Amino acid sequence: MNTPGSPSAPDSVQARPMPGSGGALPPTAHGRAFSLTEVAFLIGAPLAWAVLLWFHPAVARDDVYGDLRDEVATYVIVHAGTLVFIGLMGVALYVLVRDLPGKAATISRMAIGPFVLFYGAWETVIGLATGALVQHTNDAPAGERATLSDAIQSLQDNVIVGDPGVVAGIGALAWIVAVIAAAVAVRRAGAPVLATVLLGLSVVVFSHPPPIGPVGLACFAGAVLVLYRSQRESGSRTAQTESSTPKLAADV
């Protein structure tokens, strides 16, 4: 008989889903393991943005209108999509570090907001506003196009919102800080060196035209994939170890 009040197993022994059973893996040294939905988002968002950026027209800084007058539609579409992806990348970076402890993770989370705010504001001007002015210049009488072209050029050269400019600089710096701090945080949490290096390389995303931007985004996606595989392997080992622990006798 079982002695009344005698537990059949210590309270500290908890059932965990076995690998392949469909349940979530146990937490790992890297923090809470990502779900498949999170992984799909963390990999899909940067890769989708990378594909979009390959269509970014090449623009010489000293002849903006000359390079964009025949590709203004593509330019506007790419930058409209980029505004969306800036926000999505902010969310992706937050998901990556939200459960990690330490100052590095905190710094990364704090830098995400300024990145989305300032880099998004800069993209609105340098992308959508410039595109609208180029289209207006295309529709204007030929005699007015030289003056309008100069106005477009002056916008690009503006010290506040131009390229480069103060707003762009703040946004880029915020992204660099957020990514480097995230790389430090995941490494301190036990992430593989490869994941840390790939995440660190994604700092180049702030220079988004191809090939630099897409390469940086591919590095971000690669870092997530390496980190997820490491979490799966670590979680599987933990579950297998616990499942092989001899059970305590239920009867006294």
Structure report:
This protein has one domain. By secondary structure, it is mostly helical. It starts with 35 loop residues before the first helix and ends in a 9-residue tail after the last helix. It is built from eight helices and no strands. 35% of the residues are buried. The N terminus and C terminus are likely disordered.
Strand proportion: under 5%
Unreliable residue runs: 1-29, 248-252
Strand tally is: 0
Computed structural class: mainly alpha
The helix/strand order is HHHHHHHH
Task: Tell me, rounded to a whole number, the average pLDDT.
Answer: 86
- Span of the ends, CA to CA: 7 Å
Anisotropy-based shape: elongated
Give the radius of gyration. 25 Å
- What is the count of structural domains? 1
**Helix share bin:** 55-70%
Number of helices: 8
**Largest sheet, strands/sense/barrel:** none
Summary keywords:
mainly alpha; disordered C terminus; elongated; single chain; 252 residues; 8 helices
In short:
Helices cover 64% and strands 0% of the residues. It has helices spanning 36-53, 64-68, 72-97, 103-139, 145-156, 166-188, 193-201, 212-243.
Helices and strands, with pairings:
Elements lengths: L35 H18 L10 H5 L3 H26 L5 H37 L5 H12 L9 H23 L4 H9 L10 H32 L9
Helix pairs in contact: 1-3, 1-8, 3-4, 4-5, 4-6, 6-7, 7-8
